[in-house]
Every structure is written in structure tokens, then in C-alpha cells.
Amino acid sequence: MKQKNYIVWSKKEIDLSDPFQRKWYIKQVLLHGRAEDISKLDWNEVSTLLPELNLPEHIEKLWRDYFNAQK
What we know:
Strand content: under 5%
Low-confidence stretches: none
Number of helices: 4
Structural class: mainly alpha
Number of domains: 1
Largest sheet: none
Helix content: 40-55%
Mean pLDDT: 87
């Protein structure tokens, strides 16, 4: 995985097949990623994992509202 200069990763490679690292990656992208990074996420996965990501309330609400509007 190529690192982005605007997101600081704690390791050189992230194993997205590991559920823990995948959740962590999604959380970091939702918090710190650019629109181009966020657009590459799997929306079904984000919607499913949203309650488990422990995002700040205002960020979680933004995404909850987004997914509710898509229904």
C-alpha cells in the first residue's frame, strides 16, 4: 500500500486482510483522508462497520446521516 503524506501511518504496510487493521484503516481515512481516499472505500463495509469505529460523535453522525439519506 502506498502511503499518503497527509495521513500518518504507524507502520509501513497495512494488512487490509486483518479485520483489526482494516477497521483502523477505514477509521483513519474517514477522519483524515481526502475525498479521493474516502471515495475508494467500500460503502457497504463502511456502513456496516460504522458503529464499531468509535468515531467522534459529529463525524459518526455525518456518516449515519449520509447512509440514511441513501436508503
